[in-house]
Design goal:
Elements (H helix, E strand, L loop, with lengths): L1 H24 L18 E2 L7 E9 L7 E7 L1 H6 L14 E6 L5 E8 L4 E12 L3 E12 L7 E13 L9 E4 L2 E4 H4 L6 H4 L10
Antiparallel strand pairs: 1-4, 2-3, 2-8, 3-9, 4-5, 5-6, 6-7, 7-8, 9-10
Length: about 210
């Protein structure tokens, strides 16, 4: 008799437990988090070549006590291909990683990583406004890091203005730079011999009279 009563009570108890458990499963699930719209990527582009000719380039460093670097440089296609990020030297070959993007207003975004091969790496980020082929401005942040030479670690901000003035003057060769009245050829200073056609381009023709 007592056994039958125990069994009759066990049935409702199990039913209560099952209802409680089932009730837990029936609770409404939290709403999924709203999807975050992906930020559209800027389309990648390439910088147009600078027009050959005589260029005026001015580089100003924020916070520097030194005056802006102001120079004129004779540019042809070969010189343009090797110019660095600031446009004042031949360090372009040290910067194989470059990404250029274009904003809706026509501004060009620039990211570049330059390695001198001596453990010194400079990463550039900035924006270019104007027409890069003949008249533009460039605002750049440059972060230089070196594990072996910690004294080289620094961050600099530059403003570059560059404008084509016209044709190179008579007697000027590609890569000729005039800075503070001093004329230096970038290729000659780097020990790079100009092709004979470029070197003789502006030399006066010789011949028997």
């Amino acid at each position: 008799m007592f056994e039958a009563a125990r069994r009759s009570l066990a049935g409702p108890a199990l039913l209560v437990v099952c209802v409680a458990v089932t009730g837990c499963h029936d609770r409404p699930k939290p709403a999924p988090a709203p999807a975050v719209a992906a930020r559209p990527e800027r389309p990648k582009v390439t910088l147009p070549p600078r027009q050959p000719g005589l260029w005026q380039i001015t580089v100003t460093e924020d916070g520097s006590v030194d005056p802006p670097q102001d120079l004129q440089i004779c540019i042809d296609a070969m010189t343009d291909a090797h110019l660095g990020i600031l446009g004042t030297d031949l360090s372009g070959d040290q910067c194989p990683r470059r990404t250029v993007s274009q904003a809706g207003d026509g501004t060009l975004g620039l990211l570049a990583s330059c390695d001198t091969g001596t453990g010194i790496v400079t990463e550039y980020s900035g924006a270019i406004t104007g027409d890069y082929s003949h008249d533009y401005s460039e605002k750049l942040r440059a972060q230089t890091t070196s594990q072996s030479l910690p004294q080289m670690n620094r961050v600099a901000n530059y403003m570059v203005t560059a404008k084509r003035l016209g044709e190179c003057a008579s007697g000027q060769q590609p890569g000729d730079v005039i800075n503070d009245g001093v004329k230096v050829n970038l290729f000659g200073a780097a020990g790079v011999k100009l092709p004979s056609s470029a070197a003789a381009k502006d030399e006066p023709a010789g011949g028997d009279e």
